[in-house]
Design a protein that fits this description.
Blueprint lengths: L21 H28 L1 H23 L5 E13 L12 H4 L7 H4 L1 H9 L3 E13 L5 E9 L34 E10 L4 E10 L33 E11 L2 E9 L10 E3 L5 E3 L13 E10 L3 E10 L12 H5 L4 E11 L9 E12 L14 E14 L7 E15 L11
Antiparallel strand pairs: 1-2, 2-3, 3-4, 4-5, 5-6, 6-7, 7-10, 8-9, 10-11, 11-12, 12-13, 13-14, 14-15
Length: 442
C-alpha cells in the first residue's frame, strides 16, 4: 500500500486475510517491483546530482575512521584533577596553674630565674598569650595515567611558626594546643613548598604499591581505623588514639597494601631525611672531637630518622578495626603536639610502638553518634635525660595514650558535623628506675 501497488476489491475492501492463488501473488509482486524500480531511478538521479558532496563526506568519514583506529591502538589519556583546601584560624589561649618553667640555665647551674619569670602561667602569657590569625592552604594535583593509578603532588603554605596552635614548635609552652592544620615550611612563613610527591599503582589482585620522595606514613595504609574527626581539630585526636604507631612520618619511602573482602594489610618504610647521602651518625671534626653528623640520613642507614610500619585490619560497610606496629629509629616518634614533654624526652633513640584502634558508624544519621576509640603503647630505648643534669635512672622507658571520639553527622542541619573527644596524650608510664609522675587529659 505504501507504493500504491496493492489494490483492493472493487467495493473498496482489502480483505488482507483472504487466500489468493499463486498467479495472483505473482501479479502482485510484479506490480510492486515495477513501482520500486521507479523509486530506485529517482534515488540514482539524486545520487548523481549530489555526487560531489557525497565524495567529500566519504573522505571525511574515512579520515575519522583512521584517526579513531589510531587512538584505539595507542590509548593514553592523562587526567589531572585539582583539589584545594584553605583553613583560617583566629584565636588565642589563656593559661593558669602553679607550674614553673624548667630552663637550660637552671640545669647548667646558673641559678633560678626570678619567680615571676619562672611561673609557667606568666611565661606562657608573655610568649603566646595573644590572639593570632593564621592560615594553612593546600593544593593537590592528582594525576592518573590509567584510571587506576595516582600521582599526587601537593603544594602547601602556611604561617603557624610562632602560633600557639603549632604543636611542633620548640617555643610552644603547651604542644597539646597544636592543631592538625598548623603548617609552616622550615624555610619560613608564607613559603610555598612541595608537601607531597608520590605515585600509587595497582599490582595484581588487591595489591597496591606506593613510592615517593615526599610520602607520609598514612598515604601507604590500606585503611584508617577511625571515623573521627570529619574535619580538623586538636592534633592529639587525629591519630586513631595511637600517635606512636601512627606517627605520620614524612619523607622518602615506599609501601605495599593489600585489601580484599574487607581484610587488609599494609607494610611501609619512611625516612624523614632520605634526601641525605651521608649514612653515618657521628663525624670527627678538627681537634678530634666526635659530634653528631648534621647531614646524616639516607634510606636504611644508621643515621636515618625512619619508621617501619605494619598494619592488619578489617573494614566493613560501617565499622572497622586495625592493629599497627611501628618501629622508630633515631628519634622518629610521635609528633610534638601529641605527648607530654617528659614522654617526648624518651623518644630520642629507637622505639617500638603498638596501636589498637576501632570505629563504628550508624547506617542512618540521628541521635546515635559514630564511635571511634584507640589505645597506644610505646617501649623506648636509647633515651636519656637533659644534658648536664645526671638524672641516672630517670630515663623514660615506656609511654601510652588513648582516646574516645564521638561524632554526629548532619547535626542540626544537613551537612553539619558535631563531635567531641576525650583522652590522654602520650604520657610516660615507666622510667629506668621508679615510676614517673606524668600525665594529662584533653
Amino acid at each position: 500500500e505504501r507504493y500504491g501497488c496493492v489494490a483492493g476489491y472493487p467495493n473498496g475492501t482489502f480483505k488482507g486475510g483472504q487466500a489468493m492463488t499463486r498467479f495472483e501473488a505473482a501479479a502482485l509482486l510484479n506490480a510492486c517491483l515495477d513501482r520500486v524500480t521507479e523509486v530506485t531511478d529517482e534515488l540514482k538521479r539524486l545520487m548523481k546530482e549530489f555526487q560531489k558532496e557525497l565524495a567529500i563526506l566519504k573522505g571525511r568519514v574515512d579520515g575519522l575512521e583512521a584517526r579513531v583506529g589510531e587512538l584505539e591502538a595507542n590509548q593514553f589519556s592523562t587526567t589531572t584533577k585539582l583539589k584545594g583546601y584553605a583553613a583560617f584560624v583566629l584565636g588565642g589561649n589563656s593559661y593558669g596553674g602553679n607550674g614553673n618553667v624548667v630552663t637550660s640555665a637552671q640545669f647548667a647551674g646558673a641559678g633560678l630565674l626570678p619567680l615571676s619569670d619562672r611561673s609557667l602561667k606568666n611565661y606562657a602569657k608573655a610568649t603566646q598569650g595573644g590572639t593570632s590569625f593564621n592560615y594553612d592552604v593546600r593544593l593537590d594535583l592528582d594525576t592518573s595515567f590509567t584510571g587506576k593509578d595516582l600521582l599526587r603532588t601537593r603544594l602547601r603554605a602556611g604561617n603557624f611558626g610562632a602560633s600557639a596552635y603549632n604543636g611542633g614548635s620548640k617555643t610552644n609552652i603547651s604542644n597539646l594546643t597544636g592543631m592538625e592544620t598548623s603548617f609552616q615550611d622550615p624555610a619560613g612563613a608564607n613559603v610555598v613548598s612541595i608537601d607531597r610527591l608520590f605515585y600509587k599503582f595497582p599490582v595484581g589482585d588487591g595489591f597496591n604499591v606506593v613510592v615517593g620522595p615526599r610520602v607520609r606514613q598514612d598515604d601507604m595504609l590500606a585503611m584508617w581505623p577511625s571515623a573521627y574527626p570529619a574535619d580538623t581539630v586538636l592534633d592529639i585526636f587525629t591519630y586513631a588514639g595511637a600517635p606512636g604507631a601512627y606517627s605520620l612520618n614524612l619523607g622518602g619511602g615506599a609501601g605495599v597494601t593489600y585489601a580484599k573482602n574487607g581484610f587488609n594489610a599494609s607494610l611501609n618504610y619512611v625516612s624523614s631525611n632520605a634526601n641525605s647521602g651521608s649514612p653515618v651518625q657521628k663525624v670527627t671534626v678538627a681537634g678530634g672531637a666526635v659530634v653528631n653528623n648534621p647531614i646524616g640520613g639516607g634510606i636504611g642507614t644508621s643515621a636515618a630518622v625512619s619508621t617501619f610500619t605494619a598494619q592488619l585490619g578489617y573494614a566493613g560497610s560501617n565499622y572497622g578495626a586495625a592493629f599497627a606496629y611501628t618501629y622508630g629509629q633515631n628519634g622518629a616518634g610521635p609528633y610534638g603536639g601529641n605527648a607530654t614533654p617528659l614522654a617526648l624526652s624518651g623518644f630520642t633513640g629507637s622505639n617500638s610502638n603498638y596501636g589498637l584502634s576501632a570505629y563504628w558508624s550508624p547506617k542512618e544519621t540521628g541521635f546515635i553518634p559514630s564511635i571511634s576509640t584507640g589505645w597506644g603503647y610505646s617501649t623506648l630505648s636509647g633515651a636519656s635525660g637533659p644534658a648536664g643534669v645526671g638524672l641516672t635512672g630517670a630515663e623514660v622507658t615506656a609511654a601510652q595514650n588513648w582516646y574516645v571520639g564521638l561524632q554526629w553527622a548532619d547535626a542540626f542541619l544537613k551537612g553539619n558535623t558535631l563531635g567531641m573527644a576525650f583522652g590522654q596524650p602520650t604520657f610516660a608510664t615507666s622510667q629506668f628506675k621508679g615510676k614517673p609522675n606524668d600525665g594529662n587529659y584533653a
